[in-house]
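pasting for ref
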Amino acid sequence: MSIETPANTDMEKLVSLCRRRGFIFPSSEIYGGLSSCWDYGPLGVELKRNIKNAWWREMVQKRDDVVGIDSSILMHPRTWQASGHLEGFSDPLAECKGCHRRWRTDQLAGEECPECGGELTEPQMFNLMFKTFMGPVEDASSIVYLRPETAQGIFVNFQNVVTTTRKKLPFGIAQIGKSFRNEITTGNFIFRSREFEQMEIEYFVKPGTDKGWFDYWLRECYGWYQKMGIREKNLRLRQHMKHELAHYALDCYDIDYLFPMGWSELEGIANRGNFDITQHASYSGKSLSYWDEESKEQITPYVIEPSAGVDRALLAFLCDAYAEEPDKDETRVILHLHRELAPVKTAVLPLSKKEPVAKKAEEVYSELRQHWVTGYDEAQSIGRRYRRQDEIGTPFCVTIDFQTLDDNQVTVRERDSMNQIRVPIKSLRETLSAKLDGEDFFVLPAGGQIWKQEN
């Protein structure tokens, strides 16, 4: 079985697959689309939900030191004064005098327009926050901003969480939610867009213990991507140079992934020190200190922040899973997605559209979809149907044939190996559940048998 590396994965092929099979569509496509905005289709929304659920299960549910919140997208404007976003959340912008395209000058290789070679204007700082107005009057007093990150919603709720959960340091607050940045330069499909979703943790620790916890979260976050199926050779850690560090950061690493366009950031882990808690206490006039029972004193916690992008993670999982294999005179396209992430867990494929095979297939389909997202496909040859499920990453296909009517058994086919087993219908749900949890494919229920062994 030959799997291409992401560096050789053709982004155009991936975009085509996503659009053709219903993972991702251009936003407002009937009106010509909207630059760098994307809609997730029936398969994309399932994949995205599975990524978020897997992250939440690992980072929150399985732990006793992390809790979750869901803060508002619109926040008090002073939030962004305290965080520094109003003054410092800017990029240098230059406009081409010829074609009038705008560029971030810190990302240009030369001093000419990359599009037409024209002369560029002098750079000006451009704030990346989307501004709007709250209420019926559009004046300075009603200005609010779409949040550019989810982190600040966690910081302003620090005291609420401490009071209601009675958590002791160290502990974390997690959040998954939408953020908005009016990026000057977007592109590479969903890698950089103006509306995106984040998975973030702010982990509060005692000063002096921050270095150890920073190293701990580096390992945890890096390991999660490997656990979810990304190959280690396509991941790396990159420490920020001093000139790259945000003004508040004591240290920061990126988890980079080898995307088709090269190594790019997948997640950032930062030691934010006590900057955010201190700033919000100062601007709000409210105490955000923490009473430490051990030392019998008020302390200002330090913060370790793992910050991941859902959309970037989704793109990385797709890139890493995409593969092409020779299949007689054709090419078999497969998404080797981790079973926990696969948008469709199983598909029911009847060998005939006619009764009574179709009726039996519908009964099996009705039962399975109570437990998992399940597909049903009765069009064209069984080989074609297998291939359609392979290219959306469905781990298992269940075939109902004429023999099923006699022995009440079905054939289960595994995506990656194409091996097949035959199991009784009464054991099907338990069998699929065990396989989705990682059980060896050839561990059989009572009455089961190996049907086809490719390798």
